[in-house]
Write a structure and sequence with these properties.
single chain, 287 residues, Protocatechuate 4,5-dioxygenase, Chain B, 10-stranded mixed β-sheet, 8 helices, 10 strands, 25% strand
Length: 287
């Protein structure tokens, strides 16, 4: 009988990597990096063996997918922002047994999901950036789940998350963490204005809605948030249509969830987008 021990909504802004490098932006994302390291510390403390990342940078147009390779290793440059992330090395171990279990459980629950073990699929930076700060020594095994879902219903992602948790608790001999890797509002700064928005959100409207959402999370008002999620994702340009968030909340109980978010890295603007690191305490599911 396994356990979901840690659940979190996390940032993966590429300026975290830029923050490490010498230059004018050195140290600019230290708070986000420190937040990742604190989440990793809590995972170690809780005995987590595998990090399951719902990655809003893995775009899919059909079905749900798990990158289920036994080993991930390489040097990564972002095709989206090659001037932010270039030649970033990575190495970590997968968990093919868990990936196969999760895919089978979601499929049985009516959400067809494939776990790709014999694959040349590379990891995307929605997974790689968090791993850089949470798993630098390779302590944790890793699964990456497609969460930039272009032709999918949010309710399917909710059901996928619920099936994943049920499978972990019923059939996995270990302890896992689930991470929704993606922003809140996600309207990038217009080309040519990026430098002006490195620490800002694109508009006061988007920033105010994001703060209202964080308030709902901290109050534990999940019925209100879950009801507004589809419209929030659409009107505030949610990253990956916020399928990562639907997956995470599906695992936690959706609108019956009773936890209150703990903000680990306070809300911040990044290149026009709204970002946060927040732990959502895992509570018993409603009967």
């Amino acid at each position: 009988m396994g356990k979901l021990a840690i659940a979190a909504k996390i940032t993966h802004v590429p300026s975290m990597y830029l923050s490490e490098l010498d230059g004018p932006h050195h140290g600019c994302r230290q708070a986000a990096i420190d937040g990742h390291r604190e989440i990793a510390r809590r995972c170690r403390e809780a005995g987590v063996d595998t990090l399951v990342v719902f990655d809003t940078h893995w775009l899919v147009n059909s079905g749900y997918h798990i990158n289920n390779a036994a080993r991930f290793e390489g040097v990564y440059t972002s095709n989206e922002l090659p001037h932010f992330i270039k030649n970033m090395p990575y190495a970590c171990t997968g968990n093919p047994a868990l990936g196969a279990l999760l895919a089978a459980a979601a499929t049985q629950a009516g959400v067809p999901t494939r776990a790709h073990a014999d694959t040349t699929l590379a990891l995307e930076y929605g997974t790689l950036v968090p791993l850089r700060y949470m798993n630098a020594d390779g302590h944790f095994r890793v699964l990456s789940v497609s969460a930039m879902c272009m032709a999918h219903n949010l309710d399917d992602s909710r059901r996928l998350g619920a099936a994943f948790r049920q499978a972990v608790e019923a059939d996995y001999d270990g302890t896992v963490a689930f991470f929704a890797s993606g922003s809140l509002s996600h309207r990038f700064a217009q080309n040519g204005q990026t430098d002006d928005y490195l620490f800002k959100v694109w508009s006061p409207f988007l920033e105010r809605v994001d703060h209202a959402v964080v308030d709902l999370w901290q109050q534990g008002d999940w019925p209100t948030f879950c009801a507004m999620l589809p419209e929030y994702a659409e009107k505030c340009h949610g990253e990956g249509h916020m399928h990562d968030t639907a997956m995470l909340l599906g695992a936690l109980g959706w609108d019956t969830y009773t936890g209150r978010a703990e903000v680990v890295t306070p809300y911040f603007g990044s290149s026009g987008t709204g970002q946060i690191n927040a732990i959502l305490p895992v509570t018993p599911l409603a009967a």
